[in-house]
Structure prediction request, 339 residues.
Amino acid sequence: MRKNGKQAYMGTRIVVVLTCFIFAAFFFITYLKKSSDFENRETLILETNDCLAAGDWNCAEKNVRTLLNATPNDTNLQLHLAGILFEQGRYKECVYYIQSLNFKNKDLDYLVEKSSLLEQEMEKLGVEKSMHFRLEFDGSPAKKDVMEALAVLEVAFDSLSDLFGFVPENKMCVVLYQEKEHQGVGPRPEWVGAIFDGKLRIPVNMMAYREVYRPVIFHELTHAFVRSMTRAELPFWLNEGIAQVIDASHNNDERPKGAAPNLKTLTEQFVKHNSSEMATKLYWYSQKMVEELLIFGGGGKEVFRKFAQCMQDVHQLGFDVALRKHFAVTSEKLLESVR
Ligand SMILES: [Zn+2]
Prediction:
């Protein structure tokens, strides 16, 4: 049957409308895909920055490699990957990777130079690569001190993993340095000697004083463990309190004179307080608050595992909610009960 003119016109119009619709749908889907790819990439970049800041090299490596799959010539990502390999102590791999790149810059040169130097120093000292630590040296420490420091660190690592029921995923960087002669007047505050600032910095001269270095290494290593439990910022009282509970060197200190510090002061960085009197007070209250927290958690050895689980929840839940969930207590309540 022959279509009349009107039917043919309607048919053409339907085809045109359908074609337009299909094209529109196609462009819309492409747009959605592009924008969701973009969002995924943005999310991945944010997460990668978090991992880098927290020294979570495994997570950073996985993410940077995924990002590089999409943009293999991104020099910024390539530089990051080289840095991550270095931080994991994979020096040879780091150097090979840098040699395979099509660009040069001073950061890459630094990584190559430092990788070779560290390999040489380890060889010269006859130190085997450690399972848990990546060593760096500042100055030329004696082999005996390096071995002693590493042995104490390994023992401390095993006992903390066992206590917290938690094994950090990433190697920890230890900088063994030779402390310069103390220039100031009077004794140096003891917490300045060794620090954890993402790297464990330990003065090797300290290894001559057995009664000093054990608590110091346990203290700083506890900070490193807590850091690897969460990428979230934690209140200072919690961080310092748990490190002091573990190092056990201040268990018999007397309550400092004067009013208790407020929660805000206990939560913020302690180092900005120059007076050693204030610092002593903040450390004392921090330890007491954490001791109280552990009692709230039922005490005993098991409570340290609960502590580790709580820390691992902080990133997702926030500190206050995680504390209520695992210990049924608030920071205010803890301060109140030790005041
Ligand atoms: Zn500390």
